[in-house]
Amino acid sequence: MLICWDQWFPEGARLTALAGAKILFYPTAIGWHPSEKKQYGERQRSSWEIIQRSHGIANNVFVASTNRVGHEGSKRGGIEFWGHSFVSDPSGQIIALAGGKEEILISTVDLAQVEFNRIHWPFLRDRRVDAYGKLTQRFID
After folding, report:
1. What is the pLDDT of residue 140?
2. 112 alpha carbon, distance to own chain's centre
3. If DSSP codes are grouped into helix, strand and coil, which group holds residue 19?
4. For residue range 39-97, what is the model confidence (pLDDT) as tens digits?
5. 8 A C-beta contact, residue 90 and residue 61
6. How do 86-88 and 62-67 pair as beta strands?
């Protein structure tokens, strides 16, 4: 399980997959500021979904992402949580998708898909670990 802000970084997903995970769970609380929704809303929500699906592809795992719904704060401000919880398979295909309202999302996953994908797309095996030493530094000189 990785939590909210972790969804934006590849390292957590990779380490979790290397530790044996077959499903990445991302509980999140993300949404729009009402004044930004019209201009940036769809782009932001799409980026949120794409990054997590990409972690699933790069690590050959399922992704189950939950997100809050509703509005919190003042009517002129606050944040509107967009919902759209989803489950994607190791190829990044969405196999279950909720909308923007409160609901329960149930999905059946075939964990054999993980091993199948890891054989045919051996991303974990073919990593360039010899080139990653500087990942432990915040900035590279």
Report:
1. 87
2. 21
3. coil
4. 999 999 999 999 999 999 999 999 999 999 999 998 778 999 999 999 999 999 999 99
5. yes
6. antiparallel
